[in-house]
Structures are given as C-alpha cells and as structure tokens.
Design goal:
By secondary structure, this protein is mainly α.
Length: about 160
Amino acid sequence: MNRIEAVKRVFLYDRLLRFNIDMLTGIRAEIKADIEEARLLSDALLNDEDRKFVKDFLSRLEDDFLNLLSETLENLYDEYEIFNFDLTFLSNIPDEISRELERLDLVSRINAKLEILKDKLADACYVPQISKEVLVILTPFRIYCELINHAIEFNKKFEN
C-alpha cells in the first residue's frame, strides 16, 4: 500500500468509526424514550395478548439490546482511541501504518457488531404472527433495525 492509499484508508476509518459511534449514540438516546412511548401506547391500544407480546419485547430490548448497544459503543470508542493512538505513534513509519491498517480489518469488525445489534432488533420486530397494531407500535424499533442495516451497507461500500 503506497502512502496516498494509506492516508485514504486513515481518513476512511476515522470517518466510519465516528459515523458509527454517532449513529449508535443517537439510537441509544432515542430508544429509551421509544420504549416508554411503546409501553403507554400498548397499554392504551392493544388487547391482552398483543400487550403481553409488546411488554416481553420491550423487556428483552431493555435487558439485551441496550446492554449490547452500550458494549458495542464502548468497543467502538476503544477502537477509535487505539486507532488514533496507533496512527499517531506510527505516523513517522509509513510502511508500519499500511500494515497496521490491513491488520485492523476495521470495517468487518464494525459490521460484525452492527449485525449482532440488527439481529437483536430483527428477531423481535419481524415476527410474522404479530398483529398490525403491534407492528405499528414497534415502528420506531423497526426503523432502528433498518438504519443499522443501511449503516452496514454504507460501511461495506467503503471497505474496498
């Protein structure tokens, strides 16, 4: 990898890391309010069976997804710090930067984490036997799933 390719990859990884961190931070901030809103709407609008489904979904979301989201964000922050430290340290050694960038395989690692988050949401949001009313109440969570999916595809475009 020549120097200009290394600089290009440095810029790419820096921006992709920040983009993904910002996106997940935004989702984490919004999802808590959406959980409360979904609880209120399900209590007001759904029958007992659908209300139970939504309640169970929201419990899993709080217990599993939010914890996983926080862990993923911590990992991405760590990657960002390590990435910036490594590049600062290695900036005087262009050949080392190239090897380090290839070793990182950062886009694949970010996407693997995003896939896990997307799967946590998709399992609950796209269950075929749930009612139309439940799907409406779960719309914000389905949007997050699609947003994460678009981020994965966006990251893949820049991988090569």
